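Hey,
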Amino acid sequence: MKIDFSPNCQKKLAVLKRKDANLFKLVFKQLLCFQQQPNHPSLRLHKLKGDLNDTWSISITNTIRMVFYYREVEGERGVVFIMIGTHKEVYR
């Protein structure tokens, strides 16, 4: 599965890399897990509702989430991560 990041998500990841290298490593550990086994229990994958309809969320930690949507390009299914942050930041 191909994983892409929105410009906003890329910026947040760059800030995270500078401010919290351990959390940044955990993000990519969870992304690798997601790529290999999207339904792994540690990801707590779930579809969102309301204003975030048609998007999904995975958990990085107990408090950090990443939101994405599925897309298909040239017959290949992939995802685009659009947000990363705390529960409050992501679901506001």
